[in-house]
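Fold this sequence, please.
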Amino acid sequence: MVALMLESRLVAHDPSDKLETMSSTITQPIPKDLRQQMIQRIESAPEQDVVLLHDIWLSAAKDRIWQEIQQDAAGEKEAGKLDQVPDLVRRYRARHASA
């Protein structure tokens, strides 16, 4: 997902561009010192690339957290913890109908 976001932001959307037509499903081997390589790249990157990377990391974190919330909610629904919600909402609305 991050690779797709990065590709879509960094690669020009020109149909004649060979980079855009390359498959994004090709995975590269992860180097053992990936963290150190990334730190070095960030330290030498132009500021606009650092900002872009920050945005991508935030988006990836948001997506990961949203998936966790959805999984937790699905588990609570299966456990019956949300069964009373419609009744609670109806009672709340009845109490606050004049407001």
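The first helix runs from residue 2 to 10. Helices lie at 2-10, 18-21, 34-44, 47-78, 85-95.
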